[in-house]
Amino acid sequence: MLLYTLATILAAVTSLAGVKAAPTHADDSCGHKKFWWPAKQTCLPYGGAKHHHPAPSHRHCGRWFYWDKELGCCVPPQPEVIDAECPPEWVWDEYETACIPAPAVPAPEQCGPSMWWWEPKACCLPTGGPSTPPSSPPSEGWSCPYDWYWIPEGYCAPRGPTYDTPVCVETHTWDGDVFYCKPGY
User: Fold this and answer.
1) pTM for the full model?
2) Strands 148-151 and 155-158
3) How many domains does the chain have?
4) pLDDT above 80 for 174
5) Which of 34, 39, 69, 105 keeps 20 to 30 A from 148, CA to CA?
6) Residue 74 backbone phi and psi in degrees, to 5
7) How far, in Å, CA of 89 to CA of 84, rounded?
8) Please, are residues 98 and 59 in contact by the beta-carbon 8 Å criterion?
9) Which residues pair with 101 in a beta bridge?
């Protein structure tokens, strides 16, 4: 009996030796003529769907993507296509996974009372800063210069139209590309 049990175990181990777990997202796990698209964690037909559906009127798929009715978003026809190339006056929205109409940018003369036009970000800001206490920058160690404040769009803004060169605390350096102080010198 012991010999029979050992032989059974040995046979089972030998038969499993060539078996490997199939990854859930490898190219070959999607099947023939399909590829894995990580943005929506799904397989898509290589080359695109045979019949394309038009995107809803408030969405556009740009030059390279097409509308997938089942997913309710724009998808690429192949894995190498990573940019939909939205048409003018449309912007790519990661959440919607589609091009959406670009928000209207106010003109300087459209700033309301107690507001001023800030050219670097092409927006209207409240003179003196916001009436409610501004939120703090994210915890990545960023900070705003003296007399600037953090705004929800993800950068620091000056409190008025006349401002000096931004001055960060001594452990931070001003980054004019992103408009906040970063740790380091």
Assistant:
1) 0.46
2) antiparallel
3) 2
4) yes
5) 105
6) -85, 140
7) 14
8) yes
9) 90
Helix, strand, coil shares of the chain, percent, nearest 5, are 15, 25, 60
Contacts (Cβ under 8 Å, ≥6 apart) of 89:
101, 102
Q: Are residues 132 and 95 in the same domain?
A: no
Q: What is the extent of the structural domain holding 94?
A: 25-103
Task: Determine the residue type at 96.
Answer: E
pLDDT in tens, 118-141: 988 888 999 998 888 677 777 678
- Confidence band of 46 (pLDDT split at 50, 70, 90): very high
DSSP per-residue string spanning 81-145: -----PPTTEEEETTTTEEEEPPPPPPGGG--TTEEEEGGGTEEEETTS-SSPPPPPPTTS-BPP
Does 15 fall in a domain? no
* Bridge partners, residue 45, by sequence: 34
